[in-house]
Specification:
heterodimer; A: mainly alpha; B: alpha/beta; Rossmann fold; GMP Synthetase, Chain A, domain 3; twelve-stranded mixed β-sheet; 12 helices; 30% helix
C-alpha cells in the first residue's frame, strides 16, 4: 500500500499521522529486503509489527503482513 | 505525570457514524482476506452464496454465515491440528495456544503471527489503560502461564504500557501474597475467584491486604463474576481496591470488552477492532439495546485464523455508550458477560461440560445414578459436587471409587477439585428419557 495523505475514513492526515505512516512504509520496504543480517531482519519485523498497531489503531491502514513474515 | 485519559483518543471518541463506516470497511477487507486465503471460510461463503462485495452496509453482515465452535472442532478433527482455518503458512506463527478443553471436547487450537500477538496485547492496552494502569504501576499476575491464553496478552500489554510486571507463575498462593506485599504491587490481575482466595489465604496468614498492601486496582477476567455487583463489592472491600472486569476468548486471543475507571456497571466493547452483534438465539434476529441475547463476534485482529460472525453462546445485554460518563462512544454490555445459553458451566475458571463428566462417571459400572451439583460456598467460591448412588451390593467399593473418580475428573478438568458425595439409593431422581442430571444451585446474579 502506497503512503497516502488521508486515513481510512477520508480525513486528511495530521503531520504526526503522516510521519507515523511514512515510518510504517519504510519498515515494510526494509522487511522486503532479503539480505539484511538477522539482527536487522528480525528487529525490523518487530518494529513493523509495532507500527502496524499504531497505524491500524489510528485508521491509517488495515492490511495483513504475513507475506513479510509479520 | 499527567497522561491522556484514553489509549487511543481518536477512535475511543469516534462519532458512531464514523465508527460504523470504519467497521464496514474492515469487515469487507477481512471477508475478502478470509475468502481468498482460508478454505474454511471460502467453503462456507460459497455455500451461503455470499461474496464480500455484497457488503454495502453494516446490515449486510447478516448475509455472512455464522461460524460455530462445533464447525471449528470438526475441521480440526478432519484435518489435524488446525483444520482448514489457517489463512497463512504456519511458519509465520510465533505463538500457539488452545482453549481450556475438557475430556470429550476437542480444544480450539490457535496460531498467531508477530503482529497478531502484538495486537492481542494492544487490545489489553485499551482495557488496562481505561481502568487506570499507567507506567508507574507495579502489576502482579496471579496466573499460571500455561498454554491456556489467560492473562498472557495482559502481561505484554503492561510491558507495553511501561508498568513493572511481576509474573507470579508457578508458586504457592502464600508465596504470591508475600510477593504482592514485598514488591508493593499496585495492580493484581486474576480471576475473581482466585482474587477472593488470595484474600482468604492472606487472612489466614495474618495479613490484611487492604491495610498492608498497596493494591488499588484489581483486574478480573476469566469468569463472569467480575461484573456481579456482590462479588465486586466483596473484592473491593477485601483488597481496598477498585475492581475492574474484562472478558476475552481464546478464539479471539484477547479481550473484546473492558470496564473503564468510571465503573458504569458494564463493559465497553472495543468497537474499532470488533463487531459485536447481539441476537435472539431462538430466531437469530438482532435484539435491541436493553434486551438479552447471544453475542456473535467478528474480529478485525488475528488474520491468521479469521473469526467472522462467531457464535459465542454468551448471554449479554447491550446498552448505548451514553450509559457511561467516560466519553467513549463505544457501546457497553451491561453487567459484562451474564452467562451462557448452552450447557457449558464455568466453575472457578474451568469449563465443565455435563456430557464430559458423564463420560467419566459412566466408566464406573458400580455407579447407578448420579447428579452434577454446582453450588456456591459461603457466597464466595463455586463448588462442584458429583452425587452418586451405587448399585445395590457395590457399597464396599465406595472408598476406593470416591478417590479414583475425583482424581479422574480433576485430571480431565485442569485440576479442578470435584467433591464426591455418596447418596442413599433412590434419593436421586432416576430418568428414563431426557435425563436432567445437572443442578446449578448458584445464586442468579442481580444487576439492578
Amino acid at each position: 500500500m502506497a503512503a497516502t495523505n488521508i486515513d481510512l475514513l477520508g480525513h486528511t492526515l495530521t503531520e504526526q499521522e503522516q510521519e507515523l505512516l511514512n515510518i510504517y512504509e519504510s519498515l515494510k520496504r526494509l522487511a522486503k529486503q532479503d539480505d539484511l543480517p538477522p539482527c536487522a531482519a528480525r528487529n525490523v519485523r518487530k518494529a513493523l509489527s509495532s507500527m502496524w498497531q499504531v497505524t491500524n489503531d489510528l485508521d491509517l491502514q488495515f492490511e495483513q503482513l504475513y507475506d513479510l513474515g509479520v | 505525570m499527567v497522561y491522556a485519559e484514553y489509549w487511543n483518543p481518536k477512535n475511543e471518541k469516534l462519532p458512531r457514524e464514523e465508527l460504523q463506516a470504519l467497521q464496514l470497511l474492515k469487515l469487507r477487507r477481512m471477508c475478502e482476506w478470509a475468502y481468498v486465503t482460508t478454505p474454511f471460510h471460502k467453503r462456507k461463503f460459497d455455500a451461503a452464496g455470499f461474496k464480500p462485495d455484497q457488503l454495502k452496509t453494516l446490515d449486510d453482515i447478516r448475509r455472512i454465515p455464522f461460524m460455530t465452535r462445533e464447525e471449528w472442532m470438526e475441521s480440526e478433527m478432519k484435518k489435524p491440528m488446525f483444520g482448514d482455518l489457517l489463512a497463512t503458512d504456519p511458519i509465520n506463527a510465533i505463538r500457539y495456544h488452545l482453549t481450556s478443553g475438557t475430556s470429550g471436547r476437542t480444544p480450539i487450537r490457535v496460531l498467531d503471527g508477530t503482529k497478531d500477538w502484538d495486537w492481542i496485547a494492544e487490545m489489553w492496552c485499551y482495557g488496562l489503560w481505561a481502568f487506570g494502569v499507567r507506567p508507574e504501576d507495579i502489576v502482579y499476575f496471579a496466573f499460571g502461564y500455561g498454554s491456556f491464553i489467560g492473562f498472557w496478552g495482559a502481561h505484554y500489554a503492561c510491558e507495553k504500557i511501561g508498568a513493572l510486571v511481576i509474573p507470579g507463575g508457578a508458586q504457592t498462593t502464600e508465596a504470591r501474597i508475600r510477593q504482592i506485599i514485598e514488591m508493593g504491587a499496585t495492580t493484581v490481575c486474576s480471576t475473581p475467584t482466585y482474587a477472593l482466595h488470595l484474600w482468604q489465604k492472606a487472612r489466614e496468614m495474618g495479613i490484611d491486604l487492604a491495610r498492608e498492601g498497596k493494591v488499588d486496582k484489581l483486574i478480573c477476567s476469566g469468569e463472569p463474576a467480575g461484573s456481579i455487583p456482590a462479588v465486586k463489592q466483596q473484592l473491593e472491600e477485601a483488597w481496598g481496591a477498585k475492581c475492574g472486569d474484562t472478558a476475552g476468548m481464546t478464539e479471539l486471543g484477547t479481550i473484546m470488552i473492558f470496564e473503564c475507571s468510571h465503573q458504569p456497571g458494564g463493559t465497553h466493547i472495543i468497537e474499532d477492532h470488533f463487531i459485536e452483534e447481539v441476537l435472539n438465539p431462538a430466531n437469530d434476529e438482532p435484539v435491541g439495546y436493553h434486551a438479552l441475547g447471544e453475542r456473535v463476534v467478528t474480529s478485525f485482529g488475528r488474520g491468521f485464523i479469521p473469526v467472522i460472525r462467531y457464535r459465542t453462546k454468551d448471554m449479554v445485554m447491550k446498552v448505548p455508550a451514553s450509559t457511561c460518563s467516560c466519553g467513549r462512544t463505544w457501546d457497553l454490555y451491561d453487567g459484562g458477560i451474564r452467562g451462557r445459553w448452552d450447557d457449558m458451566k464455568l466453575v472457578r475458571g474451568t469449563n465443565v461440560y455435563p456430557r464430559a463428566v458423564e463420560a467419566i462417571v459412566r466408566e464406573y459400572p458400580a455407579i447407578d445414578e448420579f447428579q452434577i451439583y454446582i453450588w456456591r460456598r459461603d457466597d464466595l467460591q463455586d463448588e462442584i459436587t458429583i452425587r452418586v448412588e451405587l448399585k445395590p451390593g457395590h457399597e464396599a467399593k465406595w472408598p476406593e471409587l470416591r478417590v479414583k473418580l475425583a482424581k479422574d475428573l480433576a485430571q480431565a478438568h485442569e485440576g479442578l477439585r470435584f467433591n464426591i458425595e455418596h447418596m442413599d439409593y433412590g434419593v436421586l431422581p432416576h430418568f428414563e428419557l431426557k435425563a436432567k442430571r445437572l443442578v446449578d444451585a448458584r445464586p442468579v446474579a442481580q444487576y439492578s
